[in-house]
């Protein structure tokens, strides 16, 4: 019995354009052998930086291309977060964000995430109560782990609060291109019109492939210059070979084709997952996401998801417990990633999960 | 007039095997599309890790492959160096090492570098005087910036001192494969026979190309496991595409061919440089290196190399002032990198440098 993994937020190989990558590599070495093989500088491969700047309609000076967007997060945290600094995160949020902030001694304030995004009223009450956060970390689209998307109205409220209370919004947006339903909302970066309130991060991990490790930050030019200094001191320059490959992949049209492939697959997978869950585990509560990789599932309050995790592993199915994404609570929740599993695997995996749930007992 | 740069330690494009890289990329995507495009883990691309382990005759558990060896240095410093910790460096040494140690608040002790390596007697006196360093950073082969190589006898002395006084030797060895004259000496890593005294770093920047950003650390398995945890928290995993390309490049024989190409070119360049300097600037004192990228030049004591730097720039020739590699002194010294310049450029560049030197005046 092979393991079916709803655990890892990564694409299955069938939705990675390996041929397109091979051709992009061929062109990178042929068309710009010097730029592809030399050190370059810490801002990244210049043509890719320019492509990203044009796509976001910002000046190139506001962009730095890094070895994946988590490295970008690390630089930004190193720059902005000192021990004891207050930082706002969503509740739940990405486990590695929590870890990165904890490692830097941040005072983490988790604000409830609702299906239309962070509870801005609760955040406002915190701010009015005197909290002075350095930054708010927000995953606006198809949030990891919840799959929820921040509404336009809440984006506006959040920006207004950040301006009034002078904190930075760190808009962490790796999934934005993967919307398979509904209309794309404007980024807070674009809504802020360059006033310096927002630092934006995104990545090619979900649209090209994770192994390429190319991400980027967009922010005020002076902030980006500080990140550049940190990056130079850490690794001289990021991976030029990988960035030159991504540049070719983007400019040839392969990126847009790849995004269509990924979106079609994710849309089908989430539909299969929702239908299977409704049929096999009718107690499960969830909001099917409009894009991205993840669906958050709540089981009846007294369900022991830690026990379910073990029972599921015994049946060859893996997921991540909701508690991993929380500072406290959530013992009845779990995250299901549908990015790395085919519809047939999803059907099989949900059946196994249902069997595991019966074995640990479902509270009435 | 185009600028002739003796400043940057990087290869000229004519000694980079671009065709071999293109073919290696083609094979990486074809033969292991899954491993090349997926996240992998922070230890690096498994087949490359195994190749490196075999080449150094160590267990794979002792190797971690990183985004360039400077990133490896940064992880090691983060792990070992706390503010106030004493660290031994060579005098002169790589400017980015000094910066990395300063940024971490290390108490830096620079010990004179002689043509056969660090002055181990002076180091012993420091240790007997009560200094308790956490580590000694040593570039054993064709040192940057001096071009000097640590003798076998001094390697043995250094190991004995490290064992007796319980500090780690950080053997930073990116140039080892680029010996164009004489016999390769054993690494201190191999001489230590896995006793944990040595952490070793090297890189493919000088043998494949810098833009590929692949380096590695070898050390005690428990230390490497700690670095792995740091790496996971920083970037999840390093660049799998780049590491899969390097793996194919190494295993196909392209690496060994590339090393031969680079060594032949460097040997010719250093010969040209030495001859031109002797003819054009007879006051210059230097020891032609047996490998690597760099030659250290001392001018008569009262020479103002800072003024020479400006006069040289006016004549379209660049170098790095010796003071960049020192905590103090060295105002009459400079580093000439010959890796990025052809013999014809070297001839021209030395003539310009001699003219610049006459313009600022040579002390009698």
Describe it for me?
The first copy, chain A, is of the alpha/beta class and 364 residues long. Chain A folds into two domains: 117 residues, Aspartate Aminotransferase, domain 1, CATH 3.90.1150; 235 residues, Type I PLP-dependent aspartate aminotransferase-like (Major domain) (Aspartate Aminotransferase, domain 2). Chain A is 44% helix and 15% strand. In chain A, the strands form three sheets. An eight-stranded mixed β-sheet of chain A has the order 2-9-8-7-6-3-4-5, sandwiched between helices. A three-stranded antiparallel β-sheet of chain A has the order 10-13-12, with helices on one face. In chain A, β3, α5 and β4 form a beta-alpha-beta unit. Chain A is globular and about 60 Å long. The model of chain A has no long low-confidence stretch (mean pLDDT 97).
CATH topology of the largest domain in chain A: Aspartate Aminotransferase, domain 2
Oligomeric state of the chains present here: homodimer
Q: What's the gyration radius of chain A in Å?
A: 21 Å
List the total number of helices of chain A.
13
Biggest sheet strand order of chain A reads 2-9-8-7-6-3-4-5
